[in-house]
Amino acid sequence: MHELKRLLAYLGPYRRDMVLGGLLVLVETAFELFIPVLMADIIDVGVAQRDVTFIIHKGVQMAVCALLALVTGLLYARFAARAAYGWGARVRQAQFERVQQYAFSDLDRFETGSLVTRMTTDVTVLQNAVNGGLRPLVRGPVMLVMGIGLSLWMNAGLAVIFLVCTPVLGLILFAVVRKVAPMYSRLQAVVDRLNNVVQEGLAAIRAVKAFVRGEYEEEKFAAVNDELTETSQQTFRIAVLNLPAFQLTMYTATVLILWFGGNMILAGTLQVGDLTGVLSYVLQVMNALMMISNMFLLLTRSLASARRIAQVLDQEITLSSPAGGAVQVPDGSIDFQHVCFKYRADAREYALADVDLHIEAGQTVGILGGTGSAKTTLVQLIPRLYDATQGVVRVGGRDVREYDLAALRDAVGIVLQKNVLFSGTVRDNLKWGNSEATDEELWAACRAAKADEFLARMPKGLDTDLGQGGVNVSGGQKQRLCIARTLLKHPKVLIFDDSTSAVDTATGAAIRTALAAMTGVTKLIIAQRITSVMHTDRIIILEDGRVHAVGTHESLLASDPIYQEIYASQMKGGDEDGGPSAQCEKA
């Protein structure tokens, strides 16, 4: 319940709509509760005395009450919808903004499909709880209390039946809610798994077709889909038990009132109009109890969703800018001082262990190593995508934890292993590097990344639509566009994490030549091909998360056995085109 109360704080300007909606429900309920009193007067006075004028007068009052109840009900629907969907939009926005603040380590705690579910399905559950639950939340208790009160005023003897039936219904509701509450959490978890399977299958649809694994993916989807079906059936099979139980109790109460009321009429101690009025209140009170029951079921499910949303909002941000953090990075010098790192605090081994390096500003440094040697992990510590577990990482002579995060990451351009382009045009994607870049600057970056070669052949040039995730360009073209986008940042440190693996040797050499002409920029190049790093100022070789050797191409070739093996396998061992070897696979 605490999580739901906290989320209600996001109502903001829609709080007024929710309050007005609740007040309108009160007014609507009052009008409806007054109608049975008027109906009793019509029967006991108008019909008994054959007073047509009285009947018409009371009938007009009933029509006015019904009309006013209709108008207030329609107004409630308007305000409730505004409150529900406005609130949902603000909660979704809050979640999305929170996720944008996550470090990589924070993102590791949630599966992508789960985050999607929490921002869509779980928020929809909360919206439905407000849109469909505000009315019974206000109307149910009011009708219950006033209905019982008015029925006691009409005939206390018959109203005793309410006092017997109400606890019975309460016990039924308690049993249903207690049973179904944990099942809603399991249901949402299965929805997470379904979303993960769908997302993974659609994102990798080309690989699925290439490996003819369509049937396997269909079976995997069918398994989780069946699990969702079974879980939903089990959950709602119990949730709907309240309806027949309530109807049984309601009809039993009606029969008992008719039986005892009929005997009282025959005995002359009760008028027909009073019995009719009490029966009307029976229906209204039972309807109120039914609404309260549905409200509790909605509330139970919304609490499960609220807890899941609160987990996203309450996730502690492990990386944040310090108060008064430095906003200027003096130069591109990089220092690792006895750096150790592991992804989880409870991990048995360090991914990086006792890394001690100094890279001068403006140097070009190559990084080689086998699979799992932590090459990518090493460079991700520089822009604080992760924080070192032990030791200090410095950029420009200052601890990276002393910088404002935005300023540090603006000064460090990184082309990640997995190239990512977004829906839109080439121009839209390039301007991620510099939103104010002119066409001349965009083309200059494309020329440096050798992306101008294929863009010039496209009819719309920079305005070519890339499609979702850049599906309209090849892997090599995508890599070159990502490099151009990073160059537009004009950073002090450039990191290329295996960023030319999909381009041919000649294009890769042309890109390296263009990068070499950039002075005053520190360049770190993680590569699979030895030809990509052999002309750098220094080469760092990592092995099992430790620095194995540092030197130039000539010194390492003369003295280091691992480098000699890489050189032999690529330059002499049949991989003369510079392709990846077993020693230099993608980390």
Walk me through this protein's architecture.
There is one protein chain. By secondary structure, the chain is an alpha/beta fold. The chain folds into two domains: 313 residues, ABC transporter type 1, transmembrane domain (ABC transporter transmembrane region fold), CATH 1.20.1560.10; 177 residues, 3-Layer(aba) Sandwich (Rossmann fold). It is 61% helix and 10% strand. The chain is built from 20 helices and ten strands. It has a six-stranded mixed sheet. Strand 4 and strand 5 form a beta hairpin. Helix 6 runs antiparallel to helix 11. The longest helix has 50 residues. The chain is elongated. The two termini are 45 Å apart. 37% of the residues are buried. The C terminus is likely disordered.
Task: Record the SSE blueprint.
Layout lengths: L1 H7 L6 H33 L4 H50 L2 H4 L4 H8 L1 H34 L1 H48 L1 H6 L3 H26 L2 H25 L5 H43 L19 E8 L10 E8 L4 E6 L5 H6 L9 E6 L2 E2 L5 H7 E4 L10 H5 L8 H10 L3 H4 L19 H13 L5 E5 L7 H12 L5 E5 L11 E6 L2 E6 L1 H7 L1 H12 L15
Parallel strand pairs: 3-8, 3-9, 6-7, 7-8
Antiparallel strand pairs: 1-2, 1-4, 4-5, 9-10
Helix pairs in contact: 1-11, 2-3, 2-6, 2-11, 3-6, 5-6, 5-7, 6-7, 6-11, 7-9, 7-10, 7-11, 10-11, 15-17, 19-20
